[in-house]
TrEMBL record:
Residues 716-783 have a biased composition (Gly residues). This is Carboxypeptidase. GO terms for biological process: cell wall organization; peptidoglycan biosynthetic process; proteolysis; regulation of cell shape. Pfam families: Transgly, Transpeptidase. GO terms for cellular component: outer membrane-bounded periplasmic space. Residues 79-263 form the Glycosyl transferase family domain. GO terms for molecular function: penicillin binding; peptidoglycan glycosyltransferase activity; serine-type D-Ala-D-Ala carboxypeptidase activity. The chain crosses the membrane at residues 21-47. It catalyses: Preferential cleavage: (Ac)2-L-Lys-D-Ala-|-D-Ala. Also transpeptidation of peptidyl-alanyl moieties that are N-acyl substituents of D-alanine; [GlcNAc-(1->4)-Mur2Ac(oyl-L-Ala-gamma-D-Glu-L-Lys-D-Ala-D-Ala)](n)-di-trans,octa-cis-undecaprenyl diphosphate + beta-D-GlcNAc-(1->4)-Mur2Ac(oyl-L-Ala-gamma-D-Glu-L-Lys-D-Ala-D-Ala)-di-trans,octa-cis-undecaprenyl diphosphate = [GlcNAc-(1->4)-Mur2Ac(oyl-L-Ala-gamma-D-Glu-L-Lys-D-Ala-D-Ala)](n+1)-di-trans,octa-cis-undecaprenyl diphosphate + di-trans,octa-cis-undecaprenyl diphosphate + H(+). Keywords: Carboxypeptidase, Cell shape, Cell wall biogenesis/degradation, Glycosyltransferase, Hydrolase, Membrane, Multifunctional enzyme, Peptidoglycan synthesis, Protease, Transferase, Transmembrane, Transmembrane helix. Residues 684-783 are annotated as: Disordered. In the N-terminal section; belongs to the glycosyltransferase 51 family.
């Protein structure tokens, strides 16, 4: 072949043809420039050493990393969604119909198996035709050259500048294309080039590669294409928009018939078979391409988006945003996630049952696994989409992961305050006189050593006027008493609470720093359901917080594993503190504001929450093996939940118990079907408590006073300690020598040390006046 110079030329010598060709065609001129390379190389033979750097073929031309669809799976291996930047499924040549292989060669490069990287006969034919027409009537690119160009286009991705550079008709680009084409021919061979070409080529209608094209136009695999179907697809390649069979079937039929005739002319099929195929209709069976998280099943579109956002933001997948985006857009990944299909289905069923997509307000639910951080379920009432009441905002997550600005969690934040208090040494028996209304306590220490001061006398109230009196943490938590918790944060300090929140992964949904005010105790700062579910999982796992994760494993197009982010588990509090909180929150669902959320078949715990003006209502709860958060409200923070109908149920006023509670109960119940009913490690929390300045002044009820009176040398004070909190039951353990005594004093906490001579002594407590009234634990607020 190296010595052949045929192809016709109207009497012109090859040199004259070349000169005229160069004058009228940049493309053909580039081809001639390629011919100017060493003869052996130009003909597809050995070319090593002929040009500097000529042997340095990029590795991606051997097996280019073609962008293709990524499949996202649930924890059991079921498909959640398929996403891609380009609809492509790479298949080996053996899985491509022989008709298709012959059709593409016949119409694009019929001498593909006879020539090298450059077809001299084709070049001369193009020279002659273009010289006669005075323009570029024919090109001279071989199928190999086209493949090389497609590789450059693929490398350019969606960058319009790079795409333009990869396709520009310049001499330099053509020479580069020829150089690589020669090397590709030598190193890959014809069959592999053909297979790569059919997998990389664009067939219109968003279909890249023959498998995607076959599915798009005929809803079948590429290996099953018949003669007419193969001819149609092969004809599209030259101009996907012009020969689009969906939008212009007549043009497509004419082009298909040209391909069929060409196949007959080169001997790939008989004339009779070609003629028979020409008479058939196109036979389209179009499948609409489905792409992205909009295809997700069981309402998992938002979780699908979350997985993508994790991939694009986590340094595990690349140090820079560009690296991560390139890997994601290349696709071909199989991502197995943590999503439990049973839990996800249960979440969606509960959401649909309790809140309609057309309601004025919405709900979002997230379930996580304590001890692992795995996200088991994530759903919401506003559908994933682009029309009507649809949204792409994930109401379960923080703003930087596709969510909104978050929602005030209300009283669901109180257990975090309680955990900080208990971890800091304040017992769950600590009591405060908790009025219905009071000013925010002041001053309260902050993290910077300064004090928060209530300069304008801002007040707060409890939910109901009936909620007041002296109470300990158990009662205050069960009834969700606001005034108790702001008094508690006064003793704890804001900084320990913020530190505990940080250890439990709690942060504002908008990414801003938490404000250091006592109102943090009442959940006044916006957070997301995923944050709260993960935080409460800390209680369920007896004090260990695990960062939430959504991805279990990833395999790449080469079937090799890709590293994924791992959950980081750290101890946020002692087991004893967690057990105490579990006891308090178990009481909430058994005999408190969360009764409607309690599970009948297994131990559970949780906390209700509502915000001022009813902009949001919450229930966050857990069992030892699952934790979940439910939020209900207006994402726009405009609709107050008074006189409102949600899920067909009218409400004069929405509470955390009556709407989020049942959603949580149904979602968690379904998710736990078949799972073991595990128990909490509950502790005994006495009902009486220690009373710094309670209202009880005597009596003989067990644990709340009675006779005999305590010894007179207990300087904690008699007024609120002796007969009120000592007595036979409180005696030496809870009210006597250890924690209580005369006014919760005793020798240890309220007596000589904290309530007696030291902290409540002559100055604040003394032996009379405030000494007797406020001696226990230093009293409130003096001692």
């Amino acid at each position: 072949m190296a010595n052949k110079r045929s192809g016709g030329g109207g009497g012109l010598s090859p040199v004259q043809q070349a000169a005229k060709f160069l004058g009228v065609s940049v493309l053909a001129g580039a081809v001639m420039a390629g011919i100017a390379l060493p003869a052996a190389g130009a003909l597809g033979l050995a070319a090593k050493g002929s040009v500097e750097g000529f042997d340095d073929i990029p590795a991606n031309l051997k097996r280019p990393p073609l962008s293709q669809r990524t499949t996202i799976l649930d924890a059991n291996g079921g498909q959640i969604a398929a996403v891609y930047s380009r609809d492509r499924t790479v298949v080996p040549l053996k899985d491509i119909s022989p008709f298709m292989q012959k059709a593409i060669v016949a119409i694009e490069d019929s001498r593909f198996y006879q020539h090298g990287a450059i077809d001299l006969k084709g070049v001369l034919r193009a020279l002659n035709q273009n010289a006669q027409s005075g323009g570029v009537a024919q090109g001279a690119s071989t199928l190999t050259q086209q493949y090389v160009k497609n590789v450059f286009v693929e490398e350019a991705g969606d960058d319009p500048t790079k795409v333009a550079q990869a396709t520009q008709q310049t001499l330099g680009r053509k020479v580069k294309e020829l150089k690589y084409a020669i090397q590709v021919e030598e190193k890959l061979g014809k069959k592999r080039i053909l297979g790569n070409y059919l997998n990389i080529t664009f067939f219109g209608q968003q279909a890249y590669g023959i498998e995607a094209a076959s599915q798009r136009y005929f809803s079948k695999h590429a290996k099953d294409l018949d003669l007419g179907e193969s001819a149609l697809l092969a004809g599209i390649v030259q101009s996907p928009s012009r020969y689009d069979p969906v939008n212009d079937p007549d043009e497509a039929i004419q082009r298909r018939n040209v391909v069929l005739q060409r196949m007959a002319d080169v001997g790939d099929v008989s004339q009779a078979d070609a003629d028979a195929a020409k008479k058939k209709p196109l036979g389209l069976k179009v499948s609409k391409p489905e792409n992205g998280c909009i295809t997700a099943v069981k309402g998992a579109g938002f979780f699908c988006d979350y997985v993508r956002d994790v991939f694009l933001t986590d340094p595990v997948f690349g140090k820079t945003q560009e690296e991560r985006s390139k890997l994601w857009n290349r696709g071909g990944l199989t991502i197995r996630t943590t999503l439990d299909p049973k839990a996800q289905e249960s979440v969606q069923d509960s959401v649909k049952k309790h809140v309609y997509s057309s309601d004025e307000v919405a709900t979002a639910v997230t379930l996580v696994q304590p001890g692992t951080g795995k996200i088991l379920g994530m759903g919401q009432s506003r559908p994933y989409g682009f029309k009507g009441n649809d949204t792409q905002i994930n109401l379960s997550v923080n703003h930087d992961m596709g969510g909104g600005a978050g929602y005030q969690p209300g009283s669901t934040f109180k257990p975090i305050v309680a955990a900080a208090a208990i971890e800091g040494g304040i017992p769950a028996t600590r009591t405060y006189d908790s009025p219905y209304e009071m000013p925010y306590p002041s001053p309260v220490p902050k993290c910077d050593g300064k004090q928060w001061v209530n300069t304008d006398g801002t007040t707060l109230t409890n939910e109901n006027t009936s909620e007041h009196g002296t109470m300990a943490m158990k009662e205050a938590t069960a009834k969700s008493v606001n005034t108790y918790y702001v008094k508690l944060i006064k003793d704890v300090g804001i900084c320990p609470v913020l530190k505990m929140a940080g250890k439990m992964g709690v942060s504002r949904a908008d990414g801003q720093e938490m404000l250091q005010t006592p109102s943090i105790a009442l959940g006044a700062q916006e957070m997301s359901p995923l944050t709260m579910a993960s935080a409460y999982a800390t209680f369920a796992s007896r004090g260990t917080y695990c960062t939430p994760i959504a991805i279990e494993s990833i395999t790449g197009p080469d079937k090799k594993s890709i590293p994924v982010p791992k959950s980081t588990c750290t101890r946020a509090m002692s087991e004893k503190t967690a057990d105490t909180i579990n006891t308090l929150l178990n009481g909430v669902v058994e005999d408190g504001t969360g009764k409607e959320a309690g599970l009948s078949d297994r131990p559970s715990a949780g906390k209700t929450g509502t915000t001022d003006s009813r902009y949001a209502a919450w229930f966050v709860g857990y069992t030892p093996n699952i934790s979940g958060a439910v939020w209900v409200g207006d994402p726009a923070h405009k609709r107050k939940m008074f006189n409102i109908t949600i899920g067909g149920v009218p409400h004069a006023k929405v509470f955390g118990e009556d709407t989020p509670g049942p959603i949580w109960k149904d979602a968690v119940s379904g998710a736990l079907v078949g799972k073991p009913a595990l128990n909490f490690n509950l502790v005994n929390i006495p009902d009486g408590g220690d009373k710094p300045h309670g209202s009880h002044k005597g009596g003989d009820k067990p644990g709340r006073g009675g006779t005999p009176p305590l010894p007179p040398d207990f300087i904690g004070g008699m007024g609120n300690g002796g007969a009120a909190n000592g007595g036979p039951t409180g005696g030496t353990t809870d009210g006597g020598l250890t924690d209580g005594g005369a006014g919760n004093g005793g020798l240890t906490d309220g007596g000589l040390t904290n309530g007696g001579m030291t902290d409540g002594g002559p100055t604040d407590g003394g032996t009379g006046g405030n000494g007797q009234a406020n001696g226990g634990n230093g009293g409130w607020p003096q001692g």
